[in-house]
Amino acid sequence: MLKEIVIAIEGWEEARLFIKKHRLFRWILIPGIIYTILFFLGMWFFFRSADSAVSWMSSNLNIENWLQKERSEWLSFLFVMTGMMLRLILVLLYFSFFKYVILILGSPLFAFLSEKTESSIEGKEYSFKFSEVKKDCLRNITLSLRNCGWQTVYLLALVLLSLVPLVGWITPVIALLMEGYYFGFSMLDYSFARVEFSPSQSVHFMGRHKGLAIGNGLLFYVMHALIVLAPAYAIIAATLSVHKMKNS
After folding, report:
1. pLDDT tens across 202-224, in order?
2. Distance between CA 113 and CA 108 in Å, rounded?
C-alpha cells in the first residue's frame, strides 16, 4: 500500500507539470473559484450549526455542572478533548457530504479532464464525444451515491466512538484516511471506466489497491491550502497514477 501512496503523491507533482505543459489552467481556475466560494459558504454555516449541536448536547447531558461538582482537572481535560474530537468528526462528516455534491455536480468536467489527460499521455488526438462523457458521468454519480451511503454509515459509527474518552481520540485520523480513500476512489474510477471495468470490478480493484486512492484523496486535502486548484488537480493526478499503474 505504501508504494501505491507514493505513486499517488508522484501523480500530483506530475499533474503540476502536465497542466503547465498542456495549458489547462482555464479548466482549473474557473471551476476552482466556484468550488472555493461554495466551500467557504458551506463551512461558515456548518461551523455555526456544529458548535450549536455540541453545546446543546453538553447542556442536555448536564456535563458542565457535573464537572464543576467533581472538580477534577483530569475529567475536565478528557471531556474537552472528547468535545474537540466530536467537532472534528462532524466537520469531516460535513466535508464528506459537500465532497459528494461537488463530485456529482462536477462529473462532466472531471470526465472531460480525465479523457483529455489520457489522450495527451498516449499522444492521441482528443475528440470530444458527448455520449462518452455522459456515460462516464452517470457511472460516477452512481458510484458516488454508493460510496456516500457506505461512508455515512462508517462516519456515524465514528461519531459514536468519538464520545468514548481516550479511544475516541483516534477517530479523526481514521475518518481522514476514510475520506481520502473514498474521494480518491471517485477520481480514479473515471480511468477504470475507460478500460471497461464494471463498477463491481472497480470496487474489487480499489479494495486491493487502497493506497492509490488514499494517497490521491489525502493530497486533495493538502491542496486545500491552495483550495482553487484542488478538484481539477485531483482528477488529472488520478489519471496519471492509473496510467503509471497500467504500465507497471
Report:
1. 888 888 888 888 888 887 777 66
2. 9
Class of residue 92 by CB neighbours under 10 A (exposed 0-12, middle 13-18, buried 19+): buried
Reported pTM: 0.69
Range of the domain at 12: 2-247
Contact residues for 107 (Cβ-Cβ < 8 A; gap 6+): 136, 137, 140, 141, 144
Q: What is the per-residue burial (b if ≥16 Cβ within 10 Å, else e) of 162-173?
A: beeeeebbebbe
Give the C-alpha separation, 76 to 93, whole Å: 26
The structural domain count of the chain equals: 1
Please give the Cα distance from 194 to 166 (Å, whole number). Answer: 45
For 149, half-sphere exposure in the C-beta direction (CA atoms, 13 angstrom radius) is 5
| Model pLDDT for residues 146-184, shown as the tens digit of each residue | 888 888 888 888 878 877 777 777 888 888 888 889 888
